[in-house]
Amino acid sequence: MLKDLDAQPILAVSDLARARRFYGETLGLEEEGGDAPEGQAMTAYRTGATRLTLYVSDAAGTNEANALVWPVAGGIEEIVADLRAKGVTFERYDFPETTYEDGVHKSGDARMVWFRDPDGNILHLIQGM
Fold first, then answer.
1. Which of 76, 57, 77 is nearest to 121 (CA)?
2. Neighbours of 30 (CB within 10 A)
């Protein structure tokens, strides 16, 4: 039953206005809004064919694993340069047989990038896997 349904990511944020600036202005996602239940602060963004929902929660940023992953067909270095120019900083992890340069982890043909939203949710870009 579920195998035929599209899954959609949902992320907790602590400040919806700040999240809107980051996801809309910094990342360049198009806000779609959403049908928020009475009293619930939330919104949604279109990212490719996916709808990303953000909602306000006291649990925002408590996950220490990837919260959202974007597969990138090519040009990850240009994306990193654009995000860096907008103030995004990148995580550095030490993985075996992986180098790190200018925000990008490289392992063979794979290029990987991690960064956090203002609440600490870990966002990930991956090219070549």
1. 57
2. 10
With the C-alpha atoms ordered 69, 104, 80, 17, is the resulting torsion angle positive or negative?
positive
Which residues of the chain register pLDDT less than 70? 34-39
- Name the residue with tokens 């049908």: 35
CB-based burial, 34-69: b 16+ in 10 Å, e otherwise? eeeeeeeebbbbebeeeebebbbbeebbeeeeebbe
**Per-residue pLDDT, 10:** 94
The candidate with the shortest Cα–Cα distance to 104, out of 117, 119, 88, 121, is 88
**2-127 carries CATH number 3.10.180.10:** yes
What are the domain boundaries of the chain? Answer: 2-127
In angstroms, the CA 1 to CA 12 distance is 27
6's tokens:
């599209």
Instruction: Give the angle 36-32-75 at the CA atoms, nearest 5°.
Output: 135
Q: What is the pLDDT of residues 6-33, one digit of tens each?
A: 889 999 999 999 999 999 999 999 999 7
